[in-house]
Design a protein that fits this description.
This protein has 152 residues and is an alpha+beta fold. The protein is built from four helices and nine strands, in the order E-E-E-H-E-H-E-H-E-E-E-E-H.
Length: 152
């Protein structure tokens, strides 16, 4: 499980914009890495749209936002287009990266046990060190807290 102060595990995942994204290639920039359960669901849509609306603030401080779920690239592309999202969505099909970050596991949805992603966010600094970790994130208002912490 990834904790505050640890080096963020490197990964390469396919992006909805057509190319792979490697976390270590983003060194020199702060990265807001947020894991979410599923494209085009109510909570995930609220969270993604909050990030979309705040992107000018993040860009102004040199921070990159990456959304990660177990959905495939086609699903991400449709989600991004439907809601005009302005940041990459990464496909962690099978959940290997989510598992390395400690956000893949059992959760209860509408009274049914499922395996999937716990909504979580990691703030990674310019050197690849995890500065903050939020688990079990509420999709509403989370982005505002992040913007304050980042000084955006």
């Amino acid at each position: 499980m990834v904790e505050k102060g640890s080096v963020a595990p490197d990964f390469t995942l396919d992006s909805d914009d057509g190319g792979p994204v490697t976390l270590s290639d983003l060194r020199g920039q702060r990265v807001v890495l947020y894991f979410y359960p599923k494209d085009d669901t109510p909570g995930c849509t609220v969270q993604a749209c909050d990030f979309r609306d705040a992107m000018p603030r993040f860009e102004g401080i040199g921070a990159v936002v990456l959304g990660v779920s177990a959905d495939d690239v086609a699903s991400h592309r449709a989600f991004r287009e439907k809601f005009d999202l302005n940041f990459p969505l990464l496909a962690d099909v099978g959940g290997a990266v989510s598992e390395r970050y400690g956000v893949w596991g059992r959760r209860i949805v509408r009274g049914k046990p499922l395996r999937g992603i716990e909504r979580s966010t990691f703030l990674v600094d310019e050197e690849g060190v995890v500065q903050e970790v939020w688990r079990g994130v509420n999709p509403r208002g989370h982005m505002e807290m992040l913007a304050e912490i980042l000084g955006a």
